[in-house]
Task: inverse folding
């Protein structure tokens, strides 16, 4: 990999592979970042600009690829998470229903008093003052 030094305090050097359109950037402090899908003219402009930090933030930072477990989740991962969420919501709703299929708390009771009233047949846990 051929590193090209930049005239910047934050971005020390960049390297570009035109075949894969991959760009690597080394930052102050030794941190390295990889970008995918960087067009050749963007790389050329980055090494030629007088303000590489601004150019990087505007054109390259959105395409950054995080390494390891920080990578974006795949569609199947999002689908599984959404399915688990809906199953959890159904379980919570089902356990909250009374035997007759109604919720123990009625919205009309909440709206009247501004507090949650117990379902019919139950005694309140705290007496009103």
Result:
């Amino acid at each position: 990999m051929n590193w090209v030094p930049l005239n910047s305090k934050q971005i020390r050097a960049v390297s570009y592979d035109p075949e894969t359109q991959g760009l690597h950037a080394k930052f102050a402090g030794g941190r390295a970042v990889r970008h995918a899908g960087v067009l050749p003219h963007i790389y050329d402009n980055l090494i030629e600009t007088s303000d590489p930090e601004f150019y990087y933030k505007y054109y390259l930072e959105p395409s950054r690829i995080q390494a390891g477990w920080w990578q974006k989740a795949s569609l199947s991962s999002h689908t599984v998470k959404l399915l688990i969420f809906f199953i959890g919501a159904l379980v919570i709703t089902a356990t909250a229903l009374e035997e007759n299929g109604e919720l123990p708390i009625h919205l009309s009771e909440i709206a009247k008093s501004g507090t949650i009233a117990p379902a019919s047949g139950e005694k309140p846990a705290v007496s009103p003052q």
